[in-house]
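Side project, low priority. Logging it here so it doesn't get lost.
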Amino acid sequence: MKRFYKMMVFVVAFLSVASMGFANTYNDHVYVSANGKGDVLVYPFYIAAQGWQTQFDVVNTSGHSVVAKLVVHSAANSVELLDFLIYLSPYDMWRGTLKIDPTYGSQPIMYSTDSSAPSSNSSVSYFATATNPMAQPLSTSFCSGDSNQAGYVEVIEAWAGDPVFASKTDKEARGLAIKSAYDQATVFSTIDTLSGSMVINYAQGGILAARDAVAMANYRNIAYLKTGELTYLGEKSRNNVQEVDSALAKTALELPFDNNSTASSLQIVTFPTKQTQNVVGDCKTFAYKSAYFTTGNAVYNTTQYDNEEQTSAASPFSPASLSSKMPSEVNFLPISAAFSFGWLKYAFDTVSNTGFIYNNNTGGQPLGYTGAPLIPTVVKIINGVMTFTNGAWDDGVITGTMGGVAGNPSVTLSNYQYTSAFASSVQP
């Protein structure tokens, strides 16, 4: 009993010290939201090519007005292909679609008639309408081996407030009132109000399926976000990239597959914090925002199993050169398995990636994580019906130090990620 009492005193003392000193601590950090709402949404992939299109919904679930920045990134090197601001009134929803429409040329466009975002012809109306839509082409400036026909999308809540509308039915006036309030704001606060979903549609084959966006809460943007400037997760926020990495870290994935005459699978792994930069513009020298990607590749080992617990060490991928490395921001992994159905285990390295949490743009409390910061998706098409699933995973081990002091003994932050958040009443 005395030993247990001493342990509880230590835990209480540790949590008390760790929560003192500065605004963002082990008790105050971004996390993957269990209820689907947050101030960052990640849509882990899109396809806009050869009859495929991807529709996005962004929902403001609150009674406050919200401004959010939407960014479209390429699959291989996270090139920022398009960005714009969405102005959501209370309980509003925006919808747009990435597609190729011959009416607007041969490149993918973001198309929307929704009045919550700008039109492509502001001389007619600032906000989109059915007769003056957003039909904005994606950038064609990217390195060889990359593309604007596939990638991922993120939405960052920039500001929430309560501007007064002269007319709730005049959509243009309402949007301009929100825009004016945001443009004049000097304090930026967010309220974890966004939710989202996406629909992949292959119209020619009548195939479509939907999945939720991955919502991250307590990200807390702290600055004015504008179009035309690069936006990276972990910047202009109370959470740096190390903290976002920690929230997404996974040491292993367990993903099902079907691979037979009536079914096929595609496994997708997205690294939204890799955030490649083409340093000098030569498409040869790259840097990465996440400390995990020191070489640009996520290294892993894989094992495949069938329903009889049989396993095969053979590479399940084609080409084989990708069997131990995922080189892109969005990795599309077709299945060429030894079994007609089963599951694959991807094991990532368990070396701790160490850094610090945000503290007024300087190093704060030490923070480390094992595994890779990622989002998994499994696409299955069975008898012409497409479905999405997330599969399963093993959370990374998140560590700090006693009292948050560099040099002190390491401690495990067992409730850092939401999958274990209900194990304790304390959310570190």
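Brief comment: The chain is about 10% helix and 40% strand.
Revisit when time allows.
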